[in-house]
Amino acid sequence: MRIIAGKFRSRHLKSLKGLSLRPTSDMLRETLFNILGPRVQGSRFLDLFAGSGAVGIEAISRGAISAVLVENHPAAVRLIRENLASLEIKSEARIIATATAPALEKLHKDRAAVFDFIFLDPPYANRNDYELTLDSLAASSLVSESSILIAEHSKKSPLAKSIGGLEQFRLLTQGDAALSFYRLA
After folding, report:
1. Residues 108-155: pLDDT tens digits?
2. Which strand ranges, in their side-by-side order, compose the sheet holding 162-163?
3. pTM score > 0.70 for this model?
4. Does an H or E element contain 117, and which?
5. Which domains are seen in the chain, by residue range?
6. Considering only CA atoms, which of 115, 102, 108 is closest in space to residue 45?
C-alpha cells in the first residue's frame, strides 16, 4: 500500500496482516482523490473507521490542513501511529482511539470546526454502522452544506439514496467496492 500523490507520493504504508482490516485499495483511493480534486488542498478531513489511516494520510499528502483519524481497534491505532511517524506527520493529524459514535460526541463537545470531507469505511458486514453514522452526521455541527460525506461499501450492498438529512448525489463502483457520495439535502 502506498501514497498515491502529493508530498508523500510513492511512500509506503504498513497494513495489518491476518486481521479483518480491509484497507481501501490504492486504485480506489486514487479514484476518490481524483474526484475530490483540488478541493482537498486546505481542507479539514475526517476519516472514520480509519484502519491503517491511508485515506486520511492521503488527504494530508494532497494538502489537507488537518485530518482526524478515528479507529477503535488497538492494533490498528498502533499501525496508524507508525504510519504517521514514518512520514513525520505531527500537527496535521489527530488520532481518536475509540469507536465512531463516542468520537463524534467528543468532536462535538470539543466544538470542532466543520469538516470539508468525511470518509467512512466500516467493515462491509456491519451494515448498521453506515446508517447510524450517516444519520448521526446529518444532524451534527461537524457537517455544513458544503461538506461531502463519502462511504465506501460493497457494491453488492447499496446504501440508501437518502439517510437522515443526507442525499446521495453520486455513486461510483470499482471492482467489488463502491463509493457513495452524500451531502445535506
Report:
1. 999 889 999 999 999 888 889 999 999 999 999 999 999 999 999 999
2. 93-96, 66-70, 44-48, 117-120, 148-154, 177-184, 166-174, 162-163
3. yes
4. strand 117-120
5. 26-184 (3.40.50.150)
6. 115
